[in-house]
Amino acid sequence: MADITFITGSTLGSAEYVAEDLAEIAEAKGLSAEVLHGPAYDDVPATGIWLLISSTHGAGEIPDNLLPFFQTLSETQPDLSAVRYGAIGIGNHEYDLFCGAIRTLDQQLQALGATRIGDRLEIDVLEHDVPEDPATEWFQQWISLI
Q1: 1, pLDDT greater than 80
Q2: Closest CA relative to residue 66, chosen from 49, 54, 76
Q3: How far is CA 77 from CA 68, 72, 73, 114, 129, in A?
């Protein structure tokens, strides 16, 4: 099992790019990392450390490639008390439900017993052309908390 399991949801690939960059940083620090783009719930260990990275689709919705994962959590209500996680959202503040997907995922994980490590990061693409930059800065702090 990896030290950090990166779980991404994206429509245009931003979350995947962020996850790949952060996984490289983790590995450079001696941690193992597994990056799962839009995984099925069964593909994710129900223990350990997760880092969810998701863009927001449409009107605050979870991206299509991560929707089955979220729906499985909602339907099966697994006990995630053995999971600690971080959360990074990517969105545009001009939309009413800025970073709505990561907020929904964050609430769902907490309701299922998972413990969030540190604060959630919400990246506004209108302020950061390259979401990897604020994510890297946040990750340097977050990784010290695990």
Answers
A1: no
A2: 54
A3: 14, 8, 5, 12, 37
CA atoms of 100 and 91, how far apart (whole Å): 8
- The answer to whether the pTM exceeds 0.85 is yes
The structure tokens 């907490």 sit at 110
Residues of the domain holding 106: 4-143
What DSSP string describes the chain?
Answer: --SEEEEEE-SSSHHHHHHHHHHHHHHHTT--EEEEES--GGGS-SSEEEEEEEE-BTTTBPPTTTHHHHHHHHHH----TTEEEEEEEEE-TTSTTTTHHHHHHHHHHHHTT-EE-SPPEEEETTT-SSTHHHHHHHHHHHHHH-
In the block, which residue shows the tokens 């030290």?
A: 3
The CATH number given to whatever domain includes residue 127 is: 3.40.50.360
Number of domains the chain is built from: 1
> Residues 3-43: pLDDT tens digits?
999 999 998 889 999 999 999 999 999 999 999 999 999 99
